[in-house]
Write a structure and sequence with these properties.
Layout lengths: L14 H17 L6 H28 L4 H31 L5 H20 L7
C-alpha cells in the first residue's frame, strides 16, 4: 500500500491540466449554452442572476452573524425589504420609460387596420354585426 499518494496528482495528468479542470467545469456549467439562441441567452442570464444572488445572500448572512449593535443589526435585517422596494421602483421606472418612448410603427398600424377591415367584413358576411 502506498500511504503517501492520497494527495498526489494522477501521473497521467500534468499540473497544468489539473489546474484547468475547475475552469472547464465552470465553462461547461455557465458558458456551454449557445448564446446565439434565445434559450442559451436566457440560461446564461439565469446563471448570472443565481451567481449574484448567492453572493449577495452570503454577504447578508455573514453580516447578520457579525458582532454588531442592535441598530446596525436592525438595518441589516431590513436590507432585503429595501432591496425589494428599490427593485420595484426601478421596474416601474423602466416600464414608464418604455411606455413614454414606445416606438411608432406606421406600417404595422396600416397592416393592423387592414386586418381589422377584413375581419369585420368576414363577420358581417356571416351575419355577425360588428359596430365601430
Amino acid at each position: 500500500m502506498n500511504g503517501g499518494s492520497a494527495g498526489r496528482i494522477s501521473p497521467h495528468l500534468k499540473q497544468e491540466q489539473f489546474l484547468f479542470v475547475p475552469y472547464v467545469t465552470w465553462k461547461v456549467l455557465v458558458r456551454s449554452s449557445d448564446c446565439t439562441s434565445p434559450q442559451g441567452a436566457r440560461m446564461r442570464r439565469v446563471w448570472t442572476w443565481l451567481g449574484w444572488g448567492s453572493a449577495i445572500a452570503a454577504l447578508w448572512v455573514a453580516a447578520l452573524q457579525a458582532d454588531l449593535s442592535e441598530a446596525q443589526r436592525g438595518v441589516i435585517q431590513a436590507l432585503p425589504i429595501w432591496a425589494l422596494v428599490v427593485f420595484g421602483c426601478y421596474s416601474l421606472s423602466v416600464v414608464g420609460y418604455e411606455i413614454m418612448f414606445f416606438p411608432a410603427c406606421p406600417d404595422e398600424a396600416e397592416k393592423l387596420q387592414k386586418d381589422i377591415r377584413v375581419a369585420t367584413a368576414y363577420l358581417n358576411k356571416h351575419g355577425i354585426s360588428v359596430s365601430k
